[in-house]
Amino acid sequence: MKLVERMPRVQVTLMPEEAEDMWHTYNLLQIGDSLMASTIRKVQTESSTGSVGSSRVRTTLCLCVDTIDFDSQACQLRVKGTNIQENQYVKMGAYHTIELELNRKFTLAKKIWDSVVLDRIEQACDPTQKADVAAVVMQEGLANLVLVTPAMTLLRAKVEVTIPRKRRGSCTQHEKALDRFYEAVMQGILRHINFDVVKCILVASPGFVKDQFMAYLFREAVRQDSKILLENRPKFMLVHSSSGHKYSLKGREHEHCSLFMLCLLCDSQAAGEVKALEDFYKMLQHEPDRAFYGLAHVEKASEALAIDILLISDKLFRHQDVATRSRYVRLVDNVRDNGGTVRIFSSLHVSGEQLTQLSGVAAILRFPIADLSEPEDDSTSDED
């Protein structure tokens, strides 16, 4: 993301440069914001003879944001709202949908620029956050190819091949099916991984599936003289996983946690998030009076100046109710003001999905606090 122009307390002009920037933009936008961007509009024209025709024109509109739609797999962002500035093609108050485009500037204006929004802009414009790594998580007959960035975990390909069981005296059908499976996974790697960007490809599986696949991969690379695979062989790393499903990336033990190792390799902020979640689970198991989750309990701990590390999902900051969103922002600011660490988890990372199951907010405390008797206010933990 490129910061083009910033006007204090009024508006900011940004230019998304890659697909992940659309995710950052989605987290910046809120209902009621003003968005100015280039878009295509279908307009009707009437000739001097009275005939009516239509054409598509590019124009710049300023919308009051009403609906925000983000496609996490395609990284496409559509914003619907009413026109609030005079335009020769679109009447005031008319509805229009803008699809934000890469390498095209947009201007965002807000009534309130809080600390969470400003941090998101700083993160999106930080070039050191652009390290990408990939993972192939597999078992016999199933493989998931995912791309992990500092903000997202995206499923790029899923390979499923039926593998017949070995029969007594003959393994031919079993071996042929495995070769078809390995070939499909290899083609998925070649199709979906940009080796100029990706620093590391993690190959994870239970048992010896990963070892057998790697032997097949580079045997075929030599046979087919695939220079791209042979030149990037040092980028491949083998680790253990519990299964071939994407969610096996969320193992809680560091030695077997593919996501943790993957984040360390790319030195991204996600490494700190995964470590914080691991520490929270350990604290919850061994010292439950120092591990709280749920908004009401965490707020009580914050009032007691007890929070050492706050874990919070970015999903909560997309709450449509302004008062509820302000409550989360106030919690973040209070923890920081009192010397605590705040880890904002991406809801598109596996670790963020885990945190969402714990209401989206949790905390590791500096000192134990006895169980709180007040009931948890669950209604404020859900996104509208």
UniProtKB/TrEMBL annotation:
Principal location class: cytoplasm
Localisation: Cytoplasm
Residue intervals of the eRF1/Pelota-like N-terminal domain: 1-126
The keyword Metal-binding appears for this protein: yes
Any GO CC annotation of this UniProt entry: cytoplasm
GO molecular function term, any single one: metal ion binding
One Pfam family cited in the UniProt record for this chain: eRF1_3
Domain of life of the organism encoding this protein: Eukaryota
Keywords: Cytoplasm, Metal-binding
Classification via InterPro entries: eFR1_2_sf (IPR042226), eRF1_2 (IPR005141), eRF1_3 (IPR005142), eRF1_Pelota-like_N (IPR005140), Pelota/DOM34_N (IPR038069), Pelota_N (IPR058547), Ribosomal_eL30-like_sf (IPR029064), TF_pelota (IPR004405)
GO BP annotation list: nonfunctional rRNA decay; nuclear-transcribed mRNA catabolic process, no-go decay; nuclear-transcribed mRNA catabolic process, non-stop decay; ribosome disassembly; RNA surveillance
Cofactor(s) of this protein: a divalent metal cation
Family the UniProt entry places it in: Belongs to the eukaryotic release factor 1 family. Pelota subfamily.
Function of the protein: Component of the Pelota-HBS1L complex, a complex that recognizes stalled ribosomes and triggers the No-Go Decay (NGD) pathway. In the Pelota-HBS1L complex, pelo recognizes ribosomes stalled at the 3' end of an mRNA and engages stalled ribosomes by destabilizing mRNA in the mRNA channel.
Protein name per its UniProtKB record: Protein pelota homolog
